[in-house]
Amino acid sequence: RWNATYRDNDESKVSKEQGIPKEGISVDISALRYIVDPYNECTSNEDESPEKNLNDAISKYRQLSAKWSGLTGTNHVPSVGEWQKLMKESSAFIFYGTQKCLNYVPPSLLVSFPLQECNIMLILDHVETNESFLRQATLDASKTCNELTFEFPFESAAILSLTGVNSIIANQWNCKLRDNREKFTKILEAAIDNSKNIGNALRSSVHPKPESNTDQDISPGDITTEVSSTQSNVIVLDNTVLYGLPYFMLNPLKT
């Protein structure tokens, strides 16, 4: 069940062999848990604030979010015990904040922790602010090479998979707050509004259908601008990947 990529031609094969319904496996969305901006380090730009974006999502999906619960940095800094509690009782877990997710929960305390009930983990991290950079630099100075290695994206996903998490969506390298804001919004829209499984929700959020320009005249200057824009977008679009099974659904269609 450990795959770093999602391929269309594997879907029918896995569905037949493992008995996975064609539409996907339903996840109890009422058991969604979250930890957002634990140190309250993203307040400089309110529009891109993780906490504001989360509150907007809770308001938008109020019929589904009544039982969602979690912690934000405006309340207090979550303890390791609170991290473990929220992860353990979740069917879907969201971390949305600065630096790396496993900076906050030591891998040594997480590796033997049972998270079999957590089917989806959405990790929107790898963002730096001045405050988070200074805080993290101080913490990293006292860590061993092995401890730092376990916080890398692939190693973090492997540890979470070993604890029982089935689907892990995570960034591979640093990005900006607005990048995570767009992915957070688009993934939820695809998964909840359009009832897509989590794999298709991620794919539609990072690789949207291109707009047709067949009726427009394109000048050489437009081509140069488009190429430059495409090259910069690749860094953003290829950043977020899914590890594990892509078939889980937050809001399956009612039949």
Outline of the structure:
With 255 residues, the protein is α/β, with parallel strands linked by helices.
Describe this protein's structure.
With 255 residues, the chain is an alpha/beta fold. It has one domain (25-208, 238-251): Rossmann fold. It is built from ten helices and eight strands. The chain has helices at residues 11-18, 50-60, 80-88, 107-110, 130-140, 145-149, 153-163, 177-193, 198-206, 220-237, and strands at 25-26, 32-36, 69-72, 92-96, 120-124, 167-171, 240-244, 248-249. The protein is globular and about 50 Å long. Residues 1-17 and 223-229 have low confidence and may be disordered. One of its GO terms (biological process) is axoneme assembly.
